[in-house]
Amino acid sequence: MTLALQIILVLTAVLMTVFVLLHKGKGGGLSSLFGGGMQSNLSGSTVVEKNLDRYTILMAVIWIACIVALNLIQAFAG
Fold it and tell me: At what angle do helices 2-22 and 47-77 cross, to 10 degrees?
């Protein structure tokens, strides 16, 4: 169980890093490489950006849940 949570923790950390880097910042971000830059100039918020926000938040929630679960397992194991 602990190993599975640790693997999920690492995977969500990597995915969350990628998703954060894909967000549009002041300079356009990496999302402009995939066609997000042109559409974001035409409208305020695209569907792609909204979905990217949702995926980033989901990864953060899973990441935090894994940290809490691993701490509870460590606290009650000994």
Answer: 150
- CA dist 36 and 44 (Å) reads 12
- DSSP codes of every residue in 48-63: HHHHHHHHHHHHHHHH
Using CA atoms in the order 24, 27, 31, 35, what is the torsion angle rounded to 10 degrees?
A: 120
Q: What is the pLDDT of residues 25-51, one digit of tens each?
A: 765 556 566 665 555 455 556 888 899
For residues 7 and 10, what is the distance between their CA atoms, to the nearest angstrom? Answer: 5
Q: Is 7 exposed, middle or buried (0-12, 13-18, 19+ CB in 10 A)?
A: exposed
- With 0.85 as the threshold, say if the pTM is over it: no
